[in-house]
Design brief:
The chain has about 350 residues and is an alpha/beta fold. It has 12 helices and 12 strands. The chain has 2 domains: about 10-65 and about 75-125, Leucine Dehydrogenase, chain A, domain 1 (Rossmann fold); about 150-290 and about 315-340, Rossmann fold (3-Layer(aba) Sandwich), CATH 3.40.50. Strands 1, 2, 3, 4, 5 and 6 form a 6-stranded mixed sheet that branches. It has a 6-stranded parallel sheet with strand order 9-8-7-10-11-12, sandwiched between helices. Helix 2 packs across helix 3. The longest helix has 21 residues, at about 50-70. The structure holds nicotinamide-adenine-dinucleotide. Nicotinamide-adenine-dinucleotide (NAD) binds next to helix 4 and helix 5.
């Protein structure tokens, strides 16, 4: 199938492939929309099995960023980058410098940051070649740094709103939460949940990550393939996307899905399956916006930590609005969120050009 014909293409403005012979860099930048501002979204480093898998992923992620930034009220459009390489193998500064030159070639139409497989240290190397980068190591008193903990904060607040809405519970004491992936975001989410007395069930493909969760919070560790079907109140996906589908949804026992992973639904219709099964799904790009909110404030360099926290504190109210509309209109939450995001992009754009 050609790229224009892929369902994920969805009116992208621009897709650029880049190869740097000197460093072996192979990267793709996808710009879904610049209607609300420069396209912003992280750079994922992943050992894709084929370049068409990489294209499909970058397109899905970049459209998600348009919707995420619009729903978070940020003057950013949506874009994303992928580097096709195994992040577990040694990385060179030169590779990220080459990536920085690629980012720079967009002249500010695309702003990069870290994502799965890349770190603040990698972004420091990118920053040697371009100023269109955020998520850099934090300087004393500045806003910025690894967006993971801020994403976790937003997910924690959003999860509480979902629990209140679906389960009628005002707090998390003894609530059973199954967390898939205890990495950059999942670890900090577990910490916040444990502080509130939640009972954690965790899975990760890295034994060290689950061992730490068991040691620090008494989390119950289960095999990676079993986490979705645990007897839990909440399922919190914090690993990779496309984990909710026609096979996994019928076996889900939690009544709330609230987690950080991007593109949790394999297909849009999986949102309908969750809705029909009485599972409240917190749309991923609404609940996981804490990191990009942090990136936005860092990039513009004018905010305080308190302002960032206040912006993240807006996430639960946006989710509750979506949950209420979904109940009122008897429609899946993902359909409600997509409609709201598209409307925000159109209305915001007409205001900008008026
Ligand atoms: P990460 O790579 O630090 O952590 C992911 C964790 O998931 C790792 O510990 C990994 O070993 C584990 N994992 C991978 N496959 C797994 C599987 N099959 N089962 C269980 N565990 C598995 O990434 P992160 O930064 O924590 O991001 C997690 C998710 O949240 C990603 O989907 C990312 O796109 C999304 N997200 C992250 C941010 C952020 O600020 N970091 C912001 C928005 C969305």
């Amino acid at each position: 199938m050609g790229v224009f014909e892929m369902p994920e293409f969805d009116r992208h403005e621009e897709i650029v492939f880049h190869q740097d012979a000197g460093t072996g860099l192979r990267a793709i930048v996808a710009i879904h929309s610049t209607l609300l501002g420069p396209a912003a979204g992280g750079c994922r480093m992943w050992a894709y099995l084929s370049s068409s898998d990489a294209v499909s992923d970058v397109l899905r992620l970049s459209r998600g960023m348009s919707y995420k930034n619009a729903m978070a009220n940020l003057a950013f459009g949506g874009g994303k980058a992928v580097i096709i390489a195994d992040p577990k193998r040694p990385k060179t500064p030169e590779l990220f410098e080459a990536y920085g030159r690629f980012v720079n070639s967009f002249g500010g139409r695309y702003i990069t940051a870290e994502d799965v497989g890349t770190t603040t240290a990698d972004m420091e190397n990118v920053a040697r070649q371009t100023r269109y980068v955020s998520g850099l190591a934090r300087h004393a008193g500045d806003v910025g740094g690894d967006p993971g903990p801020k994403t976790a904060l937003g997910v924690y607040l959003g999860l509480k709103a979902a629990v209140k809405f679906r389960l009628g519970r005002p707090d998390l004491q003894d609530l059973r939460v199954a967390v898939q992936g205890v990495g950059g975001v999942g670890y900090h989410l577990c910490r916040l949940l444990a502080q509130d007395g939640a009972r954690l069930i965790v899975a990760d493909v890295r034994a060290a990550a689950t061992e730490r969760a068991a040691e620090e919070w008494g989390a119950v560790v289960v095999a990676a393939q079993d986490i979705i079907h645990q007897d839990a109140d909440v399922f919190a996906p914090c690993a990779l996307g496309a984990i909710l589908d026609a096979q996994s949804i019928p076996r889900l026992r939690a009544k709330v899905v609230a987690g950080a992973a991007n593109n949790q639904l394999t297909l849009d219709r999986d949102g309908l399956a969750l809705h029909s099964a009485g599972v409240l799904y917190a749309p991923d790009y609404v609940i996981n916006a804490g990191g990009i909110i942090n990136v936005f404030h860092e990039y513009h360099g004018v905010s305080s930590e308190a302002q960032v926290q206040a912006a993240i504190a807006g996430i639960p109210a946006r989710l509750t609005d979506i949950f209420e509309r979904s109940r009122r209109e008897n429609r899946p939450t993902n359909a409600v969120a997509d409609e709201l995001a598209r409307a925000r992009i159109e209305v915001g754009h007409s205001r900008l050009v008026a």
